[in-house]
Automatic annotation (TrEMBL):
The gene is panB. Pathway: Cofactor biosynthesis; (R)-pantothenate biosynthesis; (R)-pantoate from 3-methyl-2-oxobutanoate: step 1/2. Binds 1 Mg(2+) ion per subunit. This is 3-methyl-2-oxobutanoate hydroxymethyltransferase. The active site is at E181. Its main location: cytoplasm. It is an enzyme of class 2 (transferase). One of its GO terms (molecular function) is methyltransferase activity. Mg(2+) binds at D43, D82, E114. It comes from Xylanibacter ruminicola. GO terms for cellular component: cytoplasm.
Length: 287
């Protein structure tokens, strides 16, 4: 049975929750089979699936396309789909309409949006429409240009006060979970202890009620930069690179396809075929 919002909230203060991103059917199936509690169809798909420099170009249609595939693959995990840049920033109406579209067309269980105090009215309206919301505060990648880069948030007194105010505002607006990205441990602990919502950390320490990572990062899928907070559980890039190189070599020296990957025809059929072919050629020559 699929996990519900109540199954997850029951875990607060008891057993931490696990969450990973997924963007396609097969990955969702595997993550689900591993028993991961929640899957996030993150707008990080802009970076890791579509090759954009940041998440800003991702559209509602992109999120729906990938969200549908993930929901088809995840039978038990609670699926959250991100609301992309400019799908909720301009107005409360936009926020409700786009959250509704995402939920209706993907059949996901919740949406996630970035921002604190300034977007609490959007969260409230979406929750009132019957759509569970995960808030996302701290480092919010959709505001990368305003933040001047991807930096740890909440280190100064002013920033820390802002983070606490954001957490309070999004919880009061009805968010059942709060993603805390790139936040110092002591601050993540304060938010977690003060809040009834589940805190899900990414670069926010084990003080949170749960953890989320981008699956390509934790699998070592990409050979480039990975943030300090990522733990690599595999080196998929090396495994894939080696396999692709081996395949290239096998194609070039004809060791692939081998006998095991090749179809055969009976000698009898082949003989008959050759005979008919010879007769046809002879007949052609006569006329
Ligand atoms: O889009 C995403 O993958 C996210 C995670 C970084 C939490 O928002």
């Amino acid at each position: 049975m699929r996990k519900s919002i109540f199954d997850l909230l029951e875990r607060k203060g008891k057993q931490p929750v696990s969450m990973l991103t997924a963007y396609d059917y097969h990955t969702a199936c595997t993550i689900d089979e591993a028993g991961i509690d929640m899957i996030l169809v993150g707008d990080s798909l802009g970076n890791v699936m579509l090759g954009y420099e940041n998440t800003l170009a991702v559209t509602v249609d992109d999120m729906i396309h990938h969200g549908k595939a993930v929901v088809r693959g995840a039978k038990e995990a609670f699926v959250v789909v991100d609301m992309p840049f400019m799908s909720y920033q301009a107005s409360v109406e936009d926020a409700v309409r786009n959250a509704g579209r995402i939920m209706k067309e993907t059949n996901c269980q919740a949406v996630k949006l970035e921002g604190g105090v300034e977007y609490a009215d959007r969260i409230k309206a979406i929750v009132e429409a019957g759509i569970p919301v995960v808030a996302h505060i701290g480092l919010t990648p959709q505001s990368v240009n305003a933040m001047g880069g991807y930096k740890v948030q909440g280190k100064s007194l002013e920033q820390a006060q802002k983070l606490l105010a954001d957490a309070k505002a999004v919880e009061e607006a009805g968010a059942f979970a709060i993603t805390l990205e790139c936040v110092p441990e002591a601050l993540a602990k304060m938010v977690t202890e003060r809040s009834n919502a589940l805190t899900i950390g990414i670069g926010a320490s084990s003080a949170c009620d749960g953890q989320v990572l981008v699956y390509q990062d934790m699998l070592g899928y990409n050979a480039g930069f990975v943030p300090k907070f990522v733990k690599k559980y595999a080196d998929l890039h090396s495994v894939m690179l080696e396999a692709f190189r081996q395949y290239k070599q096998d194609c070039e020296n004809r060791s692939f396809p081998g006998e095991g990957q090749t179809y055969s025809i009976s000698d009898e059929v082949l003989e008959q075929l050759k005979k008919e072919e010879t007769e046809r050629l002879l007949f052609k020559k006569v006329i």
